[in-house]
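Researcher: Sequence of Cysteine hydrolase family protein follows. Predict its structure.
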Amino acid sequence: MSKRALILVDIQNDYFPGGKWTLSGIEAATANAARLLEAARTKNDLVVHVRHEAAKADAPFFVAGTPGAEINPGVANRAGEEVVVKNFPNSFRDTNLKKLLDDAGVTDLLVAGAMSHMCIEATTRAAADFGYAVTVAHDAAATRDLEFGGVTVPAAQVHAAAMASLAFGYAKLASTDELLAG
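Model: Prediction complete. Tokens:
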């Protein structure tokens, strides 16, 4: 029998308006993540909040000990819910995430959070490589415009490319409404 965990990655204050690294669509993504969080709590699924802390004090965002590095109140952890602190895009790298999941007998992961093209991709790929069945809530994830070679790539396209890449070989993708209906 499968056991699911909800992994909320880097839904932190610096990604919100007024923060140091605002993402496009972060409020809508967080509202959907909050719906998934409530459903997971109701089902007594394991909930793991992942919080990124920059390794250097002069980092552009997520500096340890600052309000921007804190989990956004919209999806704040409750007593007893695990918080994994990471320093790399991959939530498994140099953390206890895999041990937490394995100790709980988790086989299936539902992933949401930020940024779509970085930490969501890195965490999802690692989870699939570890053998977990992974679903990404594509409308509970957000990113920002990127630039390459003098070309600005709009956030919606960055997000779509990241989700398409994950759907190609690493995860099932679903909307929050589909996940809550199923």
